[in-house]
Structure formats: structure tokens, C-alpha cells
User: Fold Vitamin B12-dependent ribonucleotide reductase from Spongiactinospora gelatinilytica.
Amino acid sequence: MTETVSGAATRGGRRGRKGLKVKRVHTTPGVHPYGEVTWQRRDVVMTNWRDGSVNFEQRGVEFPDSWSVNAANIVTTKYFRGAVGTPQREWSLKQLVDRVVGVYTRTGLEHGYFASDEDAEIFDHELKYALIHQLFAFNSPVWFNVGTASPQQVSACFILSVDDQMESILEWYKEEGVIFKGGSGSGVNLSRIRSSKELLSSGGTASGPVSFMRGADASAGTIKSGGATRRAAKMVVLDVDHPDIMEFIETKAREEDKVRALRDAGFDMDLGGKDIVSVQYQNANNSVRVSDEFMHAVENGEEFGLRARLSGEVIETLDARDLFRKMAKAAWECADPGIQYDDTINSWHTTPESGRITASNPCSEYVHLDNSSCNLASINLLKFLGDDGSFDVQRFVKLTELIITAMDISISFADFPTEKIAETTRAYRQLGIGYANLGALLMATGHAYDSDGGRAIAGAITSLMTGVSYRRSAELAGVVGPYDGYARNAEAHKRVMCKHAAANDDLRTVGGMDTGIHREATRQWSECLKTGEKNGYRNAQASLLAPTGTIGLMMDCDTTGIEPDLALVKLKKLVGGGSMQIVNQTVPRALVRLGYQQEQVEAIIEYISEHGHVVDAPGLRPEHYEVFDCAMGERAIAPMGHVRMMAATQPYLSGAISKTVNLPESATVEDIEQVYREGWKLGLKALAVYRDNCKVGQPLSIAKKGGEKAGEDKPAEPPVVEVVEITRPTRRRMPNQRPSTTTRFTVGGAKGYMTASSYPDDGLGEVFLKMSKQGSTLAGVMDAFSVAISIGLQYGVPLETYVSKFVNMRFDPAGMTDDPDVRMAASVMDYIFRRLALDHLPYDERAALGIFSASERAAQQRGEDPAAQHEEVMDAEALAQSAPIERAPAQDAPRPDPAPQEVRALESHQGRTADAPLCMTCGTKMRPAGSCYVCEGCGSTSGCS
Assistant:
């Protein structure tokens, strides 16, 4: 696509400077790339999950017909600029792409990147083609800001610094706030701040970094709630030899205990609840920065010293294994802290003469100098897979060249939140090219994610991407000069390039499509070293693997970043509204690749659609099960499978990898220790873990009666035989005439009726369900279930017990309902018992179970106390009861009409984590994307781009 040629640049007065000669790859001379696409007009209407009202509407938007409804909706709502309903509002993808690419092309011309105007035009056309065909995407800030009247912010990742001075700490608060306001995230290492065990110059004791984390956490929470709806994304790092490391490790675990205790006491600790603000440290990811010295001490069972921040002397000694175990235990309890391997990170540092790498961005993929930033872009790998199963290496190489050129140009026009960040970024020009859809690519080619073949392909692609990126960076250095800090770091930078090339030489292929990719990667690294030796490099950093949240949906990717598929079944949005559950399109492609006939493919797809997994699928050979393993579900990838995949790609990345290692709920503290230990041995730079449901529920504890303590001696007493009379429950039968309510419902297209009958003096006593013709198996099962529940209620089993057991139960049919308040249900049982809870349980009991009505949720969003609604009703009832009015003996004061039903919309997708947050925009349960969460319904994220 591009090559370096001699000649005078046409802009910027750079005579005698070389320029880039750009060649066409995807476009045709004389034909604009838009002219080769079939465009389609659509209507985008987004409804409010609380009350069903329309909260966004733009009709007649224009997209290529190949774009999914979901991708078009997300781009329209998130990235189109201008007030809705005004002529200034963008209405076509063409306008969005023109706005962004126009700035890149003009800036490239002005700064002498191209040899001629014709080359600039080809660059413009190739970039537009790649974007409208979803070959890659820039990170979200580019789409938000470039070409608008707003500051030209292009970076999503920031690293700050803070010193042991109050002025610096307050400046940190301010800088973080500015970054959060712009919708980006930042990270910081607090290890320079004196510990709570050290003295101040005034003679007092220092507060310690954990105390200052409280102020930063409160700031992040305030900006989050006062701004849009995305969570303020931040990372806090502390070195393992800091004297306050133990307090730091246990900080979030203690707060998680508080959440459980307050929830059990009836406080509203749900996402967005008014009482959740009393919990601290929840707006940051925490990570411990460990050294090789510490890890060796863990291995050898040795003591490890904690050092004073100013003098460096050891002020306390701990058992390294005990400290390591406490890290793992805290992560087991609440998923924090993660771990960062300091010596590994800095051994791959290209600019050590300018300072050490001490921190990362919130998702841990960007690791570089303090007070710096990184702009990201991600390639859609599945776009390079041919119908014959081959990977188009040359198109991938040319696209990588194009992206790196564009990303480097963006630094020339970009604005930054602080002057310090602007200076560092312009001096070192850090880039973060990465990819998405790796999991889908591996499945489509018949490779298991956790296999030697899958890891070989991932390693080869990553090596090729970074090799091409740095080779292009070296070519750009020959055109517009190396980065400003290159001269003082030249030897270190070249050393790291040689390390990458050596790692590429060590990559072992398995003889499939990885062989051709690796062969080209080897050639690219050879060219990179040769050109870099001559010109230097334009960029201190080139590649990393980001979570690709919103932009992954923009590109219609099945999988994000380096992640495997989350589940084999997902929801597909339909034109005109609604959605349907479908099997991922990668699955049939994989089955054909594995040699199955069309009839077999159809039978297997039908089985997966019904069951959500491939176990016992008709005609599918057991040795092929592993190809369809996912992050969660029936055949979940083992934790070490995630670690090994990260290790297969890490040596070929400038930065790190945003990824969470999922562990089952049954995982032990020892399992997390093993993951952290193996991550260090395998050369990872950072690692985070998540144990399913670690933030849900609470282990029960039994206290001795009368405040007795274990081991307390008592005077000997004669044994007393106590006769305990066991009271058997009695059935309270329903009267012949009783009030009842019949509800017609639809869940995932399946229709049904529920009749709930109550005792005249209040209290549910009977439930009957009908979902099929009388005499069918389903009708018989539902009748039997209804009888069992009804008898249990009449024997005194609390409705709350049934609700807690059946809510969140997942099976088909599932999905959209026709109930305007309960928009999504994970199963028929999930819908039924949420409906019953809202109609028959008091507010306090529902709140403890996380079930709220529409009006209660709306009150939470307004910052009001939902319980106040019920207090008013109770006051009215009390007043009515005190009035001198004759009443029938069996009739109490009437209950208020049931409030609008609960609006906690539950995703019916298989494999969702039970405690993933609900999207604050549309109410859909979000899904993991690296260390963050992304909403597939509207594209909102919890910090990733």
C-alpha cells in the first residue's frame, strides 16, 4: 500500500524530505469507495428500559446494507454529532467517516507524510474503504471528537503520576477529573506517597496512600453520576514493597463485606442504589506491582522487606508467601487486586532513560511513561479469513501499514487534557494497534482456543502485526523523523526490537495457516531491524491488545480483543425493532471447515440453539467439542487456557493485554495463586482474575448462643436432658372463593397464562400456570410444578424463598417478553417469580433480592429514596385503620395497587456472569470485555473503548 520514496513534500515546506508513495489495495482509480457500496436507509429508535418511552429517535440514517442493525444503532447513538432533529445532525456513515478521515488526510499533507497530492488522495480512499467495510476501527474518542468544534482528543488511555506532596496529590485529583469528564480513563502508581507507618517532617504520622484513595474514589464517583452514564475508569497501583501494601490488598475485600452486610440489613446496595455511595474504593481497579525479587521470595518461602518511601530502608519484614496468599485471597473474594509484573514490564521498555514504567491505564494494556497517553485502533481479524480457510497475509500487512500511518498522523493534530501529557505524548508518540475477533477466527478455522494450533496462530498474527507496525514506524522516521526521545533511548529501543525478533524466531508453528503468517512475520522483523538501524523509529510504542468494547460492536465482531467466544448463542437485533436468539454465525462456518455435511450442520445448529452447547449434539464428534469451548457455559475454557493464550501473544506486543482470567465459582485461593504464579513464569506483564459470583451472596456464619466464645472454660454441670417437641407444619387450605389475578405473558415467543390466588386476609396461596395444550408433556409438567408450589405456599413456605431460588434461572424459552416493565427474562420461571415478587412481596424483601418496580428504579435515578413511596402508603393505611369505621372481620385495609413491575432487564444470553452490571442506559445486562463491561444493546461501556 505504501512505500518510501525520495522527493520534495508538497506541504509544510519540507523540501528534500522523503514522502510516502501510497498504492491502492482495496480501491479503484476514478471510483470513490462509497460508490462501490450499497447504501440503505434505516430508522434508529431506542426505548427507555424503565417505562418503555422513546429516549432516542433518528429516522432515515444511512449505512451500508452489510452493517447489522446493532452496529448501525450504536454508531448513530454514540458517534453521530449534532443535536438530534437539527440540520447539523449527522445522518449518514459517510458524513462521520468524511469528518474523521478528512482531518487525518489534511494533517498528513500539512506535515509532509505524502510524496504527492495523489498519494494523499489514495490514502484518503483506502482509509475510508477500510472503515466502511469494518476492517478496523479507531478508538471511541476519535469518533467523538475529531473534526468537531470540541478539542481533538484521540486518546483513550492515560497514565498520571503523583509525588509525596499535598500539591501533587491535589493535582492528581484535578487531572483525573478532567480525564473522566472527557469519557476516558487513567491509571496511577501511588508508591511514592509515604506510608501510614512513616513520619512527616512536622513530626506527625503520614496518612498513607490508601487514605488519599478515598478522595480520588469519591471524585470519580461524583463525576460518573454527574456526567453521562459510563463508569469513571481508573487504575490504582501500589508496589509490593510499600509498607501499606497489606491495607491496600484488603481494602476492596473489606468493602465487599460491607456491601453484603448492608444489603442483608435492607439497605439499597444495588447498582445505582442510594446507599451504594457509602461503599468506598469501588470506582477503581486495584493492582499490586510485584518484582522478581518478591516472586523469588514466594517461590523459596523467604522473608520480604517493606521499604520506607524516602530512605529506602526496610522498616518491616513479612513472609512473602503469606503476603502472596493474602493477595490471592482478596482476589478470590472480590476480584481485586490484579497483579502487574514490574521487572518483566521494564525489561521490554523502549525508553528506560526517560523513566521507569510504574503504572498502566485502567484495563492494564497500556504500560509506558508517567504523564502520557495512547490512542488505539483495532483490526477485525475475521475480515482476512477467506472462504477457503486461508488468511490473507498481504492484505493484513497493507492494512496495518495504513493504520499505523493514520495513528501517527493523529498525534500531530491531537489535543490533550494536560500540558504534561501533551509534552510526553508528542515526544514519544505512543500508539496502540491491536485486534478483535481472534476467538471467532480460531473457531471458524476449526482451532480450539486452548490448543497449540490456536496459540500458534494467535502468536504468529500478533508478531506479524507488531513487526509491520515497527517497520512502518521506522519508515515514518525516515520521512518525518524519529520521536523526540529516541536519541537518548536508541540503544534500549533497538535492544527491545531485537527481543521481539528473537521471540518471533522462537515461535513454533504446527504446520497449518500459522506457517505462512509466521514466514511473513519473520521477513517483516528483518526489514524492521534493518530500517530501524538506519532511520530510528517514529514511535516508542506500537501495539497492545485492548478490550474493544464499543468499537468491537461497531465492527460487528463476535468476540472482543483476545477473548474467546463468550457463548455459542446470542441475541440478534431485527430491523424494525425486537430481537431473536441465534447461533453465532462462526459456528456453521467452523462445522463446514471441520468437514461436516450440510444436513449435519443444520442438525447441530438446531441442537445448539436449543441447549446452548455442543455436548451430545447429533453427529458431532467428541474430539471436535473443544473447538466450540467458550469463556463460560457447559464447556468453559480452563483458567490456564486463558493464561497460556496471553503468554502466546505477549512477547510480540509493545504493551500488555487487557484480559480477565475467568475462574469458576468453585475455584480456590490456591487456584488463583497458581494463576498469578504461572503468569509471572510465562512472561506476562499484567493479569486480572474473576471468580464467578465472587461479588454475590454471602457465606453464612453461626454464632454461639449467649455470646459464648470457642474454647471458653465453664464449670462442670450435670447433663440435662431436654425434650424438644417438634412442631409439624399444617396446611392452610384456600377457601372456595378467593381473590385472584390472571396474567397473560410471552417469554421468548412462548405464550402462557398465570393465575395467582390469595387468601382473603392477604397472602399468596396458589399459583397455576398454563403454557401448552392440555395433555401435552409441557402442560403436565407445568401443572405438576404449579401444584408443588401451591402446596408449599399453603404449608407456610415463604414466597421470598421461592423467589430467591427461581429468579435468574436460565433456560429456553428466554428473551424478550410482551410485558412493558419486565422487558427481558432469563426463563419462564425467572419471569413468573419476578412478577409474583412485585405483586406480593413488600418493598424491603424485594430490595434485598434486587427486584424493583419501574417507579422505584426511576426514583433511584433521580436520587430519591424508593422506600419513601411505600412509607407514604403505610402512613395512609395506618390513618385509615385508626379511623372509626366499621370493617368486616376478615377484611384488612386494601393493599395499594401493584406498582409497575420490575425493570431490571436481564440478558437471556447464555454464559453471562450473574453479577455483571446492568447498563445504565438501556437496562440490558452487560458482558465482559477485557477488564471492563460492554452493553450489546446500546454500546455503552464501563470504561473500555
Observations:
- The mean pLDDT is 84.
- Residues 568-629 form one domain.
- The two ends are 28 Å apart (CA to CA).
